[in-house]
Give the backbone structure.
Amino acid sequence: NLGAMVQNLGNEAEAEAEFKKSLALHPTYAAYANLGNLYYHQNRWADSAAMTEKALQLNNKDYRLWANLGLAYDWLNDVAKANAAYEEELQRLEETAKIKADDAAIQSELGVLYSRKRLRNKAVPHIEAALALAPSDGRTLADAGEAYDNLGDRSKALELVKKSLEHG
């Protein structure tokens, strides 16, 4: 867990040094993924993308890393690479959703991804499933708001965002 690692080491510079030392000794998926995440939180988009890609070369199964890669490329204004990463994320999420259909975070993320593609018939069932599974979770409510905004339903989006703020 990146947050715990940074907290235990005291600062991000120490965490970065430890991840780099770990990678020099033995390159691992976890070290690359955590370093990519650290760089993302430091707004170092190109570094984040580079480390995340190295992690994905070792294990491309985790949808969260594809999401991180897409976000880094969004910040770098590389639409083609961002969209390619989001497509990979969508494939991994669809596979995961078959196993974890009752996971609100997965349903929520699927809803957001489909809403970005303006696929209302695919987005809404996932959004509503997420809301049914976690009706008072701030993140789920915020994601639902984003999805409905993407689909052009501003009033529903604002209602959900307001609820997300009420729930932290």
Summary: The chain has ten helices and no strands.
